[in-house]
Design brief:
Blueprint lengths: L3 E6 L2 H9 L6 E6 L2 H10 L3 E5 L9 E3 L7 H21 E4 L2 E4 L4 E4 L2 E4 L2 H11 L7 H7 L11 H17 L6 E3 L2 E3 L2
Parallel strand pairs: 1-2, 1-3, 3-4
Antiparallel strand pairs: 5-6, 6-7, 7-8, 9-10
C-alpha cells in the first residue's frame, strides 16, 4: 500500500500536534514553510494532502483547516476523507496524447478548452487508447457496445464518425482517432 503523505504547510502549531500523535496515525507527516520546498516535495510524492489554515489558489490537493478547535478524531476523519477525494480525483484523470480525459465529468480537455463527451464516447476513446494496433469494428462492437460480432450494424462507424467530427470541430484535430484499413486507432 502506498503511504499517505500529509504535508503541513505554514501551519506550525498543527504540525507539532500531529507529530506528537504520529505513532498512532497512518500518515507520513512533513512540515514545509515555503513554496519552493512544497513544490519539490510534491514532485516526488504520489499520494499527498497539503493541510494549511489559509487558501492558496495555486496549490493542488489542498485541505484548509479553518474551524478550530477541532476534536482530534474528527480531524483524522476529515483528513482520511480528503485523502479519499484526492485518490478518487487522481484516478479519474487519463492522459491521452496531449489531452486529459476526466472520467468523472466526462470531459476531454486540451489546454483550457473542455469538451463534454458521452459515456460511450469516453469508453471508445479509453478503449482505443489502450490498444497498440488498430481496432476493427467487430472488436469495438464486442468490447465497447457489447454487441455480438455477427450482427450487421453501422452503429460503430456512425459513432466514430460523429466523435471524430466533434473533436475535429472543437479542437481542430483531424488526427486524434485515425482510420486505418483494418480499424481505428489513437496513437
Amino acid at each position: 500500500m502506498t503511504s499517505q503523505n500529509l504535508i503541513i504547510y505554514k501551519f506550525n502549531s498543527l504540525y507539532h500536534i500531529l507529530e506528537e500523535l504520529n505513532s498512532d496515525l497512518n500518515f507520513e507527516i512533513t512540515y514545509v514553510e515555503n513554496e519552493n520546498l512544497l513544490n519539490e516535495k510534491t514532485k516526488i510524492l504520489n499520494n499527498y494532502l497539503i493541510i494549511t489554515n489559509k487558501k492558496y489558489s495555486n496549490i493542488q490537493n489542498l485541505f484548509i483547516l479553518e474551524n478550530l478547535p477541532l476534536n482530534i478524531f474528527k480531524l483524522v476523519e476529515k483528513i482520511n476523507i480528503e485523502f479519499l477525494k484526492v485518490k478518487f480525483n487522481s484516478q479519474s484523470k487519463v492522459q491521452i496524447k496531449n489531452y486529459v480525459i476526466d472520467l468523472n465529468s466526462r470531459e476531454i480537455q486540451l489546454n483550457n478548452l473542455k469538451l463534454k463527451l458521452t459515456e460511450k464516447e469516453i469508453n471508445t476513446i479509453t478503449y482505443l487508447s489502450k490498444q497498440d494496433k488498430p481496432v476493427n469494428i467487430n472488436q469495438l462492437q464486442e468490447k465497447v457496445w457489447s454487441y455480438q460480432s455477427d450482427i450487421e450494424t453501422h452503429t460503430v462507424e456512425t459513432h466514430i464518425y460523429r466523435l471524430r467530427k466533434k473533436i475535429s470541430n472543437f479542437f481542430n484535430d483531424n488526427k486524434f482517432i485515425v482510420s486505418k484499413k483494418n480499424g481505428y486507432q489513437i496513437k
